[in-house]
Amino acid sequence: MLPDSITTLIAALSKLPGVGPRSAERIALHLVQTESGIVKQLADVIVTARERIQFCTTCGALTEKSPCSICDDARRDGSLICVVERAVDILSIEKAGTFRGKFHVLGGKISPLDGVEPEDLRIAELEKRLGAEPIKEIVIALSTDVEGDATSNYLAKRLARSGLKISRIAYGLPAGSGLEFADELTLSRALEGRREMH
Ligand SMILES: [Zn+2]
After folding, report:
1. What is the pLDDT of residues 115-131, one digit of tens each?
2. In this predicted structure, what is the pLDDT of residue 171?
3. pLDDT tens-digit profile of 129-180?
4. How far apart are CA 157 and CA 162, in angstroms?
5. How far is CA 50 from CA 44, 47, 54, 152, in A?
6. CA distance 97 to 40
7. pTM
């Protein structure tokens, strides 16, 4: 039987994404045998990161200051907005390195079965941006699963207005997966080969 404090630590660690019970146990046993100064430092950087990071009030990206550096960058094309599901998807597209526009994070996909309705997503915020920014094209970069398709079609209808092109990245991303599984070349091609929605 493990001491209570170790059991508690394992339980907390196993709630992290990608950390199964075995990994949680291994990390916990490693931490309790590590020099306490190093463990304290790890705890401090976790707390500091959590305290400093916020969502950009414009695009929804993770940032230390709002608006974020992408929204604030005058060299980027403000007429082109790429709509992604989650803040981390921005990192995938930025790694691909070919997109020069700005972003908008939806915060999820429409999924009635999971209780996610359009009003739970940052769609009203996007409509507000359409009124305030010189946006000419919206590129929807959602995954190619049922929810991604439904959300893309919903957005194409709801956002339709004259002078605005709405496109979706070309299929070529692995079906049913998110952007993080696409390699950089695939992602660049998917963006370049985007198709206008009707
Ligand atoms: Zn931003």
Report:
1. 999 999 999 999 999 99
2. 66
3. 999 999 999 999 998 888 999 999 999 999 999 999 999 988 655 555 667 7
4. 12
5. 10, 5, 8, 31
6. 36
7. 0.82
Query: CA-CA distance, 51 to 35, in Å (whole number)?
Result: 25
What do you get for the CA distance between the two ends of the chain, in Å?
Answer: 62
Measure 189 CA to ligand 1 centroid, in angstroms: 24
Tokens matching residue 177: 């997966």
How close is the Cα of 138 to the center of ligand 1, in Å? 15
Question: Residue 112 corresponds to which tokens in the numbers above?
Answer: 């009635």
pLDDT value of residue 188: 85
CA of 141 to the centre of ligand 1 (A): 17
CB 192 within 8 A of CB 99: no
Q: Among 5, 1, 26, which residue's Cα sits nearest to residue 16?
A: 26
Q: Cα(106) to centroid of ligand 1, in Å?
A: 12
Q: Say which residue the tokens 């997109």 belong to.
A: 99
**Structure confidence by residue, pLDDT tens digits, 56-84:** 999 999 999 999 999 999 999 999 999 99
Query: Is there a contact between 197 and 166 (Cβ–Cβ < 8 Å)?
Result: yes
- Centroid of ligand 1 to alpha carbon of 111 (angstroms): 25
